[in-house]
């Protein structure tokens, strides 16, 4: 009788252990059906904002998402995630040393909902960060994080410049600028940092840094401008998903951006952070994810990140 009891316990333990070990596979197989199809698409999301999805097969499967924004269209306004502290109004940008304030981690969909922007991508590199299993990672939504590189929200600098973190800056006349430096000019209203220049003044950037030397196909997020700063491109490449989209190398992406006609481009946080979200007026509170994020190796799972770049569109 005792042996039969322990046999049942062992059988239950085996079944439970098998389900536990197979859970990531089950989650992956279920969620990959919700990814955008591998078909090309182009549409106007809002007045002055056009979305395009491109599909590549060579040298490997890749899906590229391009958002082209005419910054001179009335009503379009950029917005960067604020720090945890309440933002003072009209605080002048200063180059003085500042304390790096924390932000509260959010997914891109949560950012769209909370701040009521109509379009958003994930932003800068951040810390602390870890990703071990689908249930063991940091940050979760609501956890405190810090941004790497200069960050400005509503004219307030809350994260200082850092070596090798190049900035994207929006001035008070709504023009965008990637100055090729680690610090935005004084008239900056919104600004955030990437880690490398991919294109500078119309030419692909050759880089001998360790990051470029370890160039491999990966999920990518890029912000790029034209020469006048009146047009902004947001380019996201899905990656880490065999047979669906395996990503671009930085060199491949630099060549692609040059053909696209950008003047200067910076590389933002990619990998599992790569996310593009748009508000859905027909379903309030339910933004649409336009790409295929892959956080903790689970397709369509969004990663909570430290900051975002969003856009308000009046009368959308």
Automatic annotation (TrEMBL):
<keyword id="KW-0812">Transmembrane</keyword>
<keyword id="KW-1133">Transmembrane helix</keyword>
<protein>
    <submittedName>
        <fullName>Phosphodiester glycosidase family protein</fullName>
    </submittedName>
</protein>
<dbReference type="GO" id="GO:0016798">
    <property type="term" value="F:hydrolase activity, acting on glycosyl bonds"/>
</dbReference>
<dbReference type="InterPro" id="IPR018711">
    <property type="entry name" value="NAGPA"/>
</dbReference>
<feature type="domain" description="Phosphodiester glycosidase">
    <location>
        <begin position="117"/>
        <end position="312"/>
    </location>
</feature>
<dbReference type="Pfam" id="PF09992">
    <property type="entry name" value="NAGPA"/>
</dbReference>
<feature type="transmembrane region" description="Helical">
    <location>
        <begin position="12"/>
        <end position="30"/>
    </location>
</feature>
<keyword id="KW-0378">Hydrolase</keyword>
<keyword id="KW-0472">Membrane</keyword>
<keyword id="KW-0326">Glycosidase</keyword>
